[in-house]
Amino acid sequence: MRIVRLANFVMPRSGGLRTALRALGEGYVAAGHESILIVPGDRHSDVSDAQGRVITLPGPVVPGTGGYRVLIHRRRLARLLDRLQPDRLEVSDRFTLRWTGRWARDRGIPAVMVSHESLAGLLSFAGPAGAACADLLNARSHRAYDQVLCTTAWAAAEFDRIGAGNLVRVPLGVDLDLFHPSRASAALRARYATPDQVLLVHCGRLSTEKRPERSVEALVALRAKGVDAVLVVAGDGPLRPRLQEQAAGHAVHFTEFVADRTAVAALLATADVVLAPGPIETFGLAALEALACGTPVVVSAESALPEVVGDAGAAVHSDFADGVQRVLALPSDERRRAARDRATRFSWPAAVAGFLTVHGATAGTVHGATAGAGHGATASVVAGVP
């Protein structure tokens, strides 16, 4: 089966979406399918690797996003899709690519939209008008595609609210070998903290919707309470200068974007607690990677992360310092074991199997096959969040 995938907001320095696209592509290829991913970039390229074929088309930078690009040239993309002749279309975007759902329907090609972000959350700043706009755009999205795939019940809620009947739910996964407690590094810890200090880590994009300032505020509050803590902020983004100004004079270390996934795993495994303060996260791969490293996570109770983290951390509405203290009150071995155990409930093979089920595909299905679900699928849960 040839699965053509489309995504916006993907670049070499992006995080969760890029990780998910690669892991799913590698899984599709390993299962015997053909995976073709189309993303925007500064120039055209066409390469193949373990995740299949990756085609980059020129796309403009979206102002204020720190370099993210989008695909906007419909005719060029439509011609490419016609040449590729997909058996299934998978679209990880609901902005400039919604039209591809109709393109697929006109050609009898089953299409699924993967909801990687919360439109209701992104527009919540506009109040009731934002909610109404989100409902309108979400209604257009769910009508445009045969199925809408959400990774958590929280992510599905904005579609449930408008009565969308074509929802399926499949959680994402984590590389349990790469992200492992054995990655903890005494040398790395010594770089940032003394043996007696609490090492906190914020790992993620430094942008408004991620609310990274909450992590700095938590560090300041903890130290005011007498907790000898330090914070490492790993990531980059448009808020970095503001955060550095906010953190001036406090025990906060900023790193550049960490491209080496092994280095990310080492940092997460070395931390005592990881902070994930974003209130509109629909899944939170970085938090799950921390759990896999045996490190508990303090998350925003407003997001989907409580579904993912379960009892392997703490969910708070605003007081992240209190959440850290609650986690630290547990014995270290106990909290680290709970984190790792929680992460083992999620895996990329299980996620890939769930996505392939949505596509009506199984291992060994060849290009041109017509097995599986067609148009008009009803709401279902392919794989529930543990």
Automatic annotation (TrEMBL):
Tell me the enzyme class.
transferase
Q: Which Pfam families match?
A: Glyco_transf_4, Glycos_transf_1
Organism superkingdom = Bacteria
Q: InterPro entries this protein is in?
A: Glyco_trans_1, Glyco_trans_4-like_N, Glycosyltransferase_grp1
Taking every annotated instance into account, which residue ranges of this chain make up the domain Glycosyl transferase family? 195-341
Q: Is the keyword Glycosyltransferase in the record?
A: yes
Output the Gene3D superfamilies linked to this UniProt entry. Answer: Glycogen Phosphorylase B (3.40.50.2000)
Q: Which SUPFAM superfamilies match?
A: UDP-Glycosyltransferase/glycogen phosphorylase
A GO molecular-function term, please? glycosyltransferase activity
Keyword Hydrolase in the entry? The reply is: no
Domain (Glycosyltransferase subfamily 4-like N-terminal) spans 15-177
Key words of the record: Glycosyltransferase, Transferase
- Listed EC numbers: 2.4.-.-
Q: What is the name of the protein in this document?
A: Glycosyltransferase
